[in-house]
Amino acid sequence: MKQFITACPRNCYSTCSFKVFVDNGVVVNIEPLSENKATPEGICLKGLSYIERANSPERILYPHKKNKNGSFSRITWDEALDTIAQKLNYFKKEFGPQSVLFYAASGMSGLLNDFSGTFWKEIYGGATRVYGNLCWPAGLEATRLTLGENKHNAPWDLENAKLIILWGKNSAESNIQEMIPLGKALDDGGKLIVIDPRRTESTQRAEILAQPLPATDGALALAIANVLIENDWIDHDFIEKYVLGYDQFKESVKSCTPKWASEISSVPEDFIRTMAWMIGNIKPMTLIPGYGMQRYSNGGQTTRCLLALSVLTGNIGKAGACWHYANLQSYVFDDLLEPLCYYPPEIPDGIIRREVSTARLGEDMLAQTNPPLKMIWVERGNPVTQNPDTNSVLRAFNALDFRVVVEQFFTDTALEADIVLPAKNMFEQTDIIGSYWNPYVQLRQKVVEPAGEVKPETEIYYLLAQRMGFSEEQLDSILLPPGEEAVINYLNERLKPFPSLTIERLKEGPVLAPNLQEIAFSDYIFRTPSGKIELNSNEAFDKWGANPLPTYEKGAEANSAFDDQYPLYLMSPNSKNRIHSQFSNLKIIRMISGEPTLQINPSNAFERQIVNGDLVRVFNGRGALIIKADVSYQVRVGCVVIPNGWWKSQGGAINALSKGRETDMGHGTAFHDNKVQVEKYSK
Amino acid sequence: MKDKGFIFDYSKCVGCHACIVGCYNENRTNPPIAWRQVNALNDKKIPLAGFLNLSIACNHCIEAPCLKACPAKAYSRDGITGAVIHQPEKCIGCKYCTWACPYDAPKYNPQKGIVEKCHLCNHLIIKGHKPACANQCPTGALSFGFIDNTNQPQPFGIPKTKYQPRIKTLHSNIMNSIPEMDLSVSGYSQKHLATNKSNDKINAFEEWPLIIFTFLFSFLSGWIVSFKQESPLVQKVLFISLGFIGILLSAFHLGKPFRAPRSITNLKTSWLSREILFSGLFISSSIFYFFIINSILFLLITSLLGLLLLLSVEMVYSIPEKKYVTPLHSSNTIITALMFGLYFSGLFKLLVGVIVLKAILYLVRKKDIDNHLSPMQAICLTIRFLVGLMLPLSVILLSNPIKLEFIIYCLLIGELIDRYEFYDDLYINSPSRMLDQTLKNKLNCITE
Predict the structure, then answer these.
(1) What global pTM score does this model have?
(2) Confidence (pLDDT) at A639
């Protein structure tokens, strides 16, 4: 049995390091790697389920084509690639290369993903690509506008905090290893405030649980700021030295009284005052906002309001004091960091068309005319269930002439494909990954040969390029030649600027990012236009038309037109059981998380004569789901919850109900503005 | 290594289930069977009460009840690690260990027809490693090490027993941690309060072969006293046939019927083993008495075997918990055998006494059990009491001559129903049941 050290490449905070054991070319077991100080005890249940995932009989191991009756048949690579090459040539000739949409999401991180973009740009001569992102750009942009950069203290620094605020984050499920330093901080006498419409597992040791209505967090934060300023619980020295726009901000929050915020958010005034006292008087404070809150139409401004609390109290750049949103310090290889790389170029290059918004994928795909879209290539993503407004995404897929999906399993998106190509898993090709939480650069090692006839995407593109008339000599300087040797050579090239990083060293375990600040901003250098923390940001106005100051803006569906018809907020948080729609099909995950349910508060259920276990219909003007009710106090009155990531075939794909909308900044996706009605289902 | 066990910290467990997947990877368990479970206390997050999780598998008790209860010697203890090991090739699938264990450790696998269970990753700990579940816990809530159970506050969800489970718990006081919340948005209302219903491992309907077995043998043990040399052959044949039916039913109730002979290999500690042995001896002895040695001595021996059999039956059923609090159940097999014995001996005055005793036991028990009767339960109660007890009593006391045949049918119907109710009154304690009970008690404190 051989042992390797690797790291989990999922779109997840934790990015755990772990040991993997291989016996006779099969991945057989996984063990914790304590060298990673952020994930010392072990990987989560999803990571552990890689054993099943890698060896699942349901895995796609061969190219498939769709038959007329909708079923799939195995085909050879030659047939698959010939068909695709022929289609690509045809579309390019008839409509131009931009008639092909190349769609990639966050299913697997790694530097080699860059070659996909290279293929479309350099080999095919162009394509349409999306701009924006499903996840976190509104918060990233809000932070960038304010602090100049997205970075935070190392995860283990959390244990130094005396006050921790989990604001819309459920670390126990979405970032379980964060519970370790959090627990240590509380053991040392620290206090925990949780602000969340749900009473999650993370609230177990909280002092206060404030449960605002969704999309009202900005108002809550501004009222806390108001109390902080009124009572002079602010850090004048810090503000004087490092903050731009305090006076304007002070002026603008004068009207943001606890009473005002209480009416908007439903959080009682005395809770607001108590929380303000704690925030103003317990130091150091780490404020940890989640990513769900900024997926509302007001997400960027909401994030700026929250961040103002860390700024006013001087809780930045010190041990235990931190704005803990995103830590991009390990992304040392990127020329253009997130969120800037999500934005469409100001001047299009004429090769890659970026006019389709991730947030409005379906609608925008249908709207393309010059040229219209004819084909889509999907890799590392499952847009049918994960992008807003499933129905319009499906319409857009149906309107195309040809669809290729590279996948490990027959997901809802793979089922829409004309040709499905088998995708590699994390054990089948070496790559380098960073993390947006822990500050390590890690090697995701190849530990087994690809199963069946699986080929890594880099090889698929290489073979496709050959079929399009490129010679090996031409290709070797543009794409990655097949085989692991080329991968290592390429990665070595990328590592060259960083003496502390070598493949050999990375094979032994995670390495802290070069030039890492364990305490972010401890140098008090802020890369904003003014060089200061910008509470007042002209860029916010210039770029996004937002108020230069952090302000509370109403959520897109927080109005009476929705309230009457669709009074309940449908929340779609991530659960511990899936990373978006990944893992949902595994036997062990299905055992633990059997079927989708709608969590509904007993009070809302009672009004509708719904009892636990009833089938209910969740609906709005965009779609409907029939789902089992889980009557529970886990969610507050006025909200209902279906965790995202269920597949359509499993009956819980929530994006049938969401709308394609962009966030106020960062080209994020505001699919959490999603109001519904729930009724007892009768056939 | 025998002083090592699981160490579980309530304040660190967030119910993530990684322990279960770790076990799945190491031991290739087949979903939906898992050797470890994560139980929740207040998973509905009822306001004004705290919540916690408990990850629990086999505790490899020093005085393991499964090991003693197993009739087939399918359990053994590792000499070095003290792990209680279940040997699948010896298991007959009687499920009795799942009754004996209050920690819900043995899991019956209906596909395989046998039980399976955590073996403490004996193959790993013997080499100095931790069990997979403890090794994989991402928060450090579950670990493995030296345990010392002195001064341990009552842990949540771990039934108190004399078995000396090898588990130590920490920070159960986390249950008292309740955040300040706004009750008006939490939707809190007493009228909505409903706690989970625990799953009962004993389902009276599914246990019908056992009901028939114990019913038949209490009947036969009473009937045997009336047999003489001149008793009609048809009665003797009926007697023996009923005995064989009982034995066959209990054998085919096993997950592995053809391993039934193994069921008498643990006479030393298992009352189930003894029950099975005595049932066989009782029937064999009856055959001997009927057809070979028709002496009063052999009748006495046979009756004694019957009594030992029924004593074993009662001991077998001393393990499950009871929903009633009376010391005797009205369907106690020895009393039932006595009743039938008196009937067949024609001792009607004494029979009246026993019927009255049964009626009292029945009514007192019914008073204990909660007053929400389902229609099925109400029908059972009515027939059992009126037809099975009051009618025979009135016939004996009022009619002359006594209509013997009528009485026996009434008694049989009544006793069969009572035997069913006996199974319905049994339950097995388990961590999840205990957690539900704890929550109920907490909520009662809150509402008072």
Answers:
(1) 0.95
(2) 98
